[in-house]
Design brief:
Blueprint (H helix, E strand, L loop, with lengths): L1 H9 L22 E5 L5 E5 L6 H9 L5 E5 L8 E3 L4 H5 L9 E5 L10 H12 L3 E6 L1 H4 L3 H26 L6 E6 L1 H12 L6 E5 L20 E5 L17 E5 L11 H18 L3 E5 L2 H6 L6 E3 L11 E5 L8
Parallel strand pairs: 5-6, 5-7, 7-8, 8-9, 9-10, 10-13
Antiparallel strand pairs: 1-2, 3-4, 3-6, 11-12, 11-13
Helix pairs in contact: 2-6, 4-8, 6-7
């Protein structure tokens, strides 16, 4: 049985395998056409074999400063200040405080600065503590077709890394105080930003990292992208939108990582990752147990060490697979 499953995975057939073979689960294969949600949860049919917009990709790679960096602090918690790459005055004249922790939030496909993830996580942080929150708006690429957006993610991530270097060189700060948070495609984006910064960022949190076109992609989020990398998997089933397999130092699988209480759709499962994270920033209340295998994750019989999922701890450490069970509604 094991041999036949391994041969199946190695083939190019578009068949999803649900049985976990090892401690990091099975890499999924997707059909050519899938339904993938935008930043507001509306489904769009995606052709994973579509010809990318090479002209747009070339421009994105040439111009990493095309994206918007919007700063929020307790002095301007609802009104953004725009920080501009290679414009030192935009940094010096802002409320950016180099002595405070800095959180960067990256939305997913078809998202923008107005997507729900941004104000939700921003408000959770600013209510809890005095921090710099930078919302990355990469809509110029994110609003393109999925195949183009996915291929351009590494370049946008590198641009974010270059921006963070510019920010620190201009106004001070330390990578030990940076936390990069990304949802879906944004999770792989912040992973590439961490790679650009030599893996020296204190923490990266990937919220249900996107699965389509990323299962075997060398540019996907991985444990070397920061000092500590965490992933929260909420829609990793055979037809799920998330990658579903372990990619980080600590990989959390709430409620088994495939179907979330109170959710009837894959979109709801997928979005639950950032909803759970925002709640943990405020409350730090979801305590997971370490698991020895994905089989333990799926059977809910993990009994290892305890580790809180999510939260805002910049000095957090942990390794392995973890399961936590949550409620159906906020605060879960």
């Amino acid at each position: 049985m094991r041999t036949s499953l391994l041969l199946l995975i190695a083939s190019t057939a578009y068949i999803a395998v649900a049985v976990p073979l090892d401690d990091i689960g099975v890499e999924k294969a997707y059909p050519r056409y899938i339904d993938f949600p935008d930043g507001e949860g509306k489904l769009h049919t995606v052709d994973l074999e579509a010809e990318p917009d090479w002209e747009l990709l070339s421009d994105v790679q040439r111009n990493p400063a095309n994206n918007q960096y919007l700063l929020f602090t307790r002095r301007n918690n609802n009104r953004a200040q725009t920080l501009t790459m290679n414009n030192a005055n935009s940094i010096r004249n802002s409320n950016y405080n180099a002595n405070l922790p800095t959180v960067v939030i990256a939305h997913g496909w078809l998202g923008s600065q107005n997507t729900d993830i941004n104000p939700t996580i921003r408000n959770a942080y600013l209510t809890r503590s005095d921090v710099n929150v930078i919302v990355l708006d990469w809509r110029r690429l994110a609003l393109s077709d999925y195949a183009t957006a996915a291929r351009g993610v590494p370049a946008v991530g590198r641009g974010l890394g270059q921006f963070i270097n510019f920010l620190i060189n201009t106004a001070g700060g330390n990578l030990n105080n940076f936390h990069l948070v990304g949802f879906s495609l944004g999770a792989h984006l912040v992973g590439n930003a961490g790679r650009e910064l030599g893996g020296r960022v204190a923490r990266i949190t990937g919220l249900d990292p996107a699965g389509p076109l990323w299962n075997t992609n060398s540019n996907r989020l991985n444990r070397n992208n920061a000092v500590y990398v965490e992933a929260i998997h909420t829609d990793g089933g055979t037809t799920g939108l998330g990658i579903g397999s372990a990619v980080a130092n600590a990989d959390f699988f709430p409620n088994g990582g495939t179907s979330q209480p109170g959710c009837l759709t894959s979109v709801c499962n997928h979005d639950r990752a950032w909803e759970l994270f925002a709640s943990t920033v405020t409350r730090n209340h979801l305590v997971a147990r370490q698991c020895n295998s994905m089989l333990q994750v799926s059977r809910d019989n993990c009994s290892g060490a305890r580790l809180n999922m999510g939260n805002d701890d910049l000095r957090k450490t942990g390794n392995g697979l973890f399961r936590v069970n949550t409620g159906r509604r906020y605060p879960f």
